[in-house]
Specification:
α17 runs antiparallel to α18 and α17 (371-388) runs parallel beside α19 (411-427). β15 (810-813) and β16 (816-819) form a beta hairpin. By secondary structure, the protein is α/β, with parallel strands linked by helices. The N and C termini lie far apart (131 Å). It has 38 helices and 18 strands.
């Protein structure tokens, strides 16, 4: 044996032999031990190298199987490799392989094993202090438990991820964790905590200029708002998301966001906007070949057209959605499509197919164990059975639907079920139960509407969606002879948002008190008739029963109730849609297109035929119950499309016109009428009347989407303004003087505002309120005064006269006509006079001069307008020339 050289002490003093021997022996033993250790390590290393090489080969074989999509076959290779890495204590490879095994198990839908190996990988990465991999495993474990609906465990992992990301200032990981923590809270209906997480994620994504994460977070905030049924807020978030997706060029996300915008507009009842976004989504989904997305957009289009009563069009979209759902094997979408086809088939009178589709829908939702879908299917099937006259079956199905809705805490399902169950019970002669359920539905609808701003247009459209229980309850009460209570319910079902809008600038308690606005009583209507020396006729349309109700209220006699049957030639057309077409046809025949040339003086026979049917429907049963004319004002409270009707031109049985007998005014509701009647103006703050005529437009006007607005010169409007200004003893603003800045400065203090100019009907600039008045442009603006801008003013006016084309037009809702007239009244005017069509220039000039002469003489706006119409008719006999203006609001 050779000793190591270092053991020999060179140049040292020799020791005694026995000492040297013991020393050499001691070092010899040490050398043997060192040799054995080195020898054993060499053998062990050779074994380790062999194990590692085999493990690496097994690892690679598993990868090959995975790449071929054979996840099950990869498992044995990786499990054996993991044992070998454990033997070698190779922590890095153990962690990597544990992660791969977890992924494979997840792909094989074996979540228990997947979670086991993700947790093992997490422990190993924590030992190795590899932070990115720890974060990845925490995210994987959080997501896995989220999918399993194991909320507590999922939250534990995502909280750990958030803490890790905060500690190491990793913004991306923190945003990811916050988003998923919000999702967990959302699934548990903890909306406030979910919002807190998302707001933090949004601030962080914006601070780090991470557009992708910002878009995803805004999308989640939109989902949260939609889940809370705050559809307006959801739209705001989704629109912000859409702006970012355009910058990121994310066509897939943009397509989905457009679909969501369509859904939320649909839920708010803005079907035109819903259709626009569904169409965009459909186009985008087609471009990226997303069949499921196409099916969803088609379903949305079908739903919007269904609620617009375009049933054939709706059926076509629903059928296309069903074809795609079957093609891709999407049972959920197939179930929804069959249910929709059932509803539209029922509306088209195809009862057999409707029943068949409903049965398929119910079977599919039960097969999917989709309880919410089942609840909706039961509700829809129950509604179909009502239409078919099978009330016992309808009642049973609707009860089941309500029970499921209560279990799921879905307020919309409960509302729909209660409404239709009340309807079915009424038709089944159980009036007491029907009344109780309909009252519950009305209260639930009120609660749902509190989530939309009082002064927002979507309060109106949401109310329109929820109007059915008010109409059915009127029928229930009328059937019991409770006529006054039926009127009170009819009143609750209209103009509630308008009442809130009036509350800003009208000093009347009923306008500013939400509770007061909902409990208007019949006695108040009778008192109003006495104060106004008026006869009030209230109309209520009940499409569910093909009826029109009318109440006649006067100070001299008890209320008279009239039940009018409406006959529709086409059974596939809803009653309200039929009435809308009748009124539209009449207005179309009366209109000249723009404020311009008068019609021929001869009677227009086409107009007469259009108005005669409406005259018979509205007056045949009503006029016999009217008190004899004795100077009373006749006030109409119409509903829906009847708000656009020229009541003055309606014919009586003796051939005379209604205007021959009565001065006439209108209002969207008794509550609105009461508020306007009691409005207190402040004469001490008034300035001179404001009169505007023929503002000069030097440049072409274009809409928000680039369409040119064609406008003509109005010499008659200028002459009219001069004549009116002379009568009112003020100087008119003409041509370029009538610019928007000057007009807006003069408006708040003017007791009378007279605007003789062009009026625009549409919501050209997407402000949410249709209508605009054309004023002269300035250096800073185009001169257009939008209805949405007028609504924000504070006026002190007794009277606003809009002597322009179509100023009484707008979007027809259960809240009245949303347009220029509503905006001026909401801003504080006590009354407005507006036009129903494109009024001719010369007759309008004559009518307006006559009106102000009469107003100065009598002090009563309704009487002045009546006399002006009669005088104009003498010179220009066709109704188009004199019947186009209506008075809304206070007559004194």
């Amino acid at each position: 044996m050779v000793f190591p050289i270092s053991l020999i002490q060179i140049g040292s003093r020799p020791k005694p032999r026995c000492v040297r021997r013991r020393t050499i022996l001691r070092w010899s033993m040490r050398t043997v031990l060192v040799f054995l250790v080195v020898y054993n390590c060499t053998i062990a290393n050779s074994f380790a190298t062999e194990n590692e090489t085999r493990a690496d080969r097994l690892f690679q074989l598993g990868i090959t199987e995975i790449q071929a999509g054979r996840f099950e076959q990869a498992l044995p290779y990786w499990l054996e490799a993991l044992n070998l890495y454990e033997t070698d204590r190779n922590l890095i490879q153990q962690a990597r392989l544990s992660r791969n095994l977890a992924t494979a198990y997840q792909k094989l839908n074996r979540p228990t094993e997947a979670e086991q190996y993700y947790a093992r990988a997490l422990d190993l990465y924590q030992t190795l202090q590899q932070l990115p991999d720890q974060a990845d495993m925490l995210e994987k474990l959080g997501y896995l438990n989220l999918k399993k609906q194991n909320w507590a465990q999922s939250e534990k992992y995502y909280q750990a991820l958030a803490n890790l990301a905060r500690t190491h200032r990793q913004a991306e990981g923190l945003i990811l964790a916050l988003g998923n923590l919000a999702e967990i809270r959302l699934q548990q209906n903890d909306f406030s905590e979910a919002e807190k997480y998302l707001e933090e994620a949004l601030r962080l994504s914006r601070a780090t200029n991470d557009g992708h994460r910002e878009a995803l977070t805004l999308n989640k905030l939109g989902n949260l708002a939609e889940r809370q049924e705050n559809y307006l807020q959801a739209i705001r978030y989704f629109k912000q998301t859409l702006l970012i997706t355009g910058e990121l060029r994310r066509k897939d996300l943009a397509a989905d966001i457009n679909r969501k915008l369509g859904v939320n507009y649909y839920l708010l009842g803005d079907y035109a906007a819903a259709i626009e976004h569904f169409q965009i989504s459909l186009q985008q989904m087609t471009q990226i070949n997303d069949l499921k997305g196409q099916s969803a957009a088609l379903k949305g289009l079908g739903g919007a057209y269904y609620l617009l009563h375009a049933y054939s069009k709706a059926r076509d979209y629903y059928q296309r959605a069903l074809n795609i759902a079957r093609r891709i094997g999407d049972l959920g979408s197939e179930a929804q499509a069959t249910g929709n086809l059932a509803l539209v088939s029922a509306q088209l009178g195809d009862t057999d197919n409707a029943v068949a589709w409903h049965r398929q829908e119910l079977e599919l939702f039960r097969k999917l164990n989709d309880r919410l879908g089942e609840a909706r299917a039961l509700a829809n099937f129950g509604a179909n059975r009502i239409m078919s006259g099978d009330y016992p079956t309808a009642i049973e199905m609707l009860k089941q639907s309500i029970a499921l809705g209560e279990q799921l805490d879905d307020q919309r399902i409960i509302f729909y079920g209660q409404t239709h169950l009340g309807w079915a019970l009424f038709l089944n002669k159980d009036l007491a139960q029907a009344e109780a359920l309909l009252m519950k539905a009305i209260q639930l609808g009120k609660a749902l509407r509190t989530k939309v701003s009082d002064f927002d247009r979507y309060y109106i459209t949401l109310f329109d969606v929820q109007i059915t229980p008010y109409r059915v309850l009127q029928a229930v009460l009328a059937a019991q002879g409770r006529i006054e209570e039926a009127l009170e319910i009819a009143e609750q079902g209209r103009a509630q948002a308008f009442i809130r809008l009036l509350g800003r600038n009208h000093h009347e308690p009923a306008a500013s008190n939400n509770t007061q606005a909902s409990i208007f009583k019949f006695k108040q209507a009778q008192q109003l008739a006495r104060q106004r020396h008026a006869i009030i006729v209230v109309y209520s349309i009940l499409p569910e029963f093909s009826k029109l109700y009318a109440w006649i209220i006067s100070a001299e006699q008890k209320p008279v109730f009239v039940d009018i049957a409406i006959s529709v030639p086409d059974s596939g057309v809803a009653i309200d849609a039929f009435l809308q077409k009748q009124v539209k046809d009449a207005l179309h025949q009366l209109s000249t297109g723009v404020r311009g040339v008068a019609r021929a003086t001869a009677q227009d026979t086409q107009t007469e035929s259009a108005l005669s049917g409406l005259s018979r429907l509205l007056l045949e049963k009503v006029t016999p119950a009217l008190p004899a004319p004795n100077g009373q004002e006749l006030i109409f409270i119409p509903q829906g499309p009847l708000l656009m009707l020229p009541f003055a031109a309606l014919q009586l049985e003796d051939g005379s016109r209604l205007v021959d007998k009565f001065p006439i005014s209108v209002a969207p509701s008794l509550q609105v009428l009461t508020t306007l009647h009691h409005t207190r103006r402040k004469p001490e703050h008034r300035l001179a009347p404001l009169v505007v005529g023929n503002p000069m437009q030097s440049e072409a006007l274009f809409t928000a989407d680039g369409r040119r607005i064609e406008l003509s010169n109005l010499p008659g409007a200028q002459a009219e303004a001069k004549a009116v200004a002379k009568l009112l003893q003020t100087a008119p603003l003409l041509g370029a003087q009538a610019n928007k800045e000057t007009v807006l400065r003069r408006m708040p203090g003017a007791g009378i505002i007279h605007l003789a100019t062009h009026g625009l009907l549409e919501d050209y600039f997407a402000q949410g309120v249709p209508g605009a008045l054309v004023l002269a442009p300035s250096a800073t603006d185009s001169g257009l005064l939008l209805a949405a801008e007028i609504e924000r003013l504070t006026l002190n006016s007794d009277l606003v006269v809009l002597s322009a084309c179509d100023t009484g037009s707008g979007r027809i809702t259960g809240d009245g006509v949303v347009g220029l007239s509503r905006s001026f009244l909401g801003a504080g005017a006590a009354s407005v006079i507006v036009s129903l069509w494109s009024v001719p220039d010369m007759p309008t000039e004559f009518l307006m001069k006559s009106f102000y002469q009469q107003l100065i003489s009598t002090g009563n706006k309704a009487e002045a307008l009546q006399q002006a119409m009669l005088a104009t008719r003498e010179r220009f006999p066709a109704p188009v020339n004199w019947a186009g203006f209506i008075l809304i609001g206070s007559a004194q």
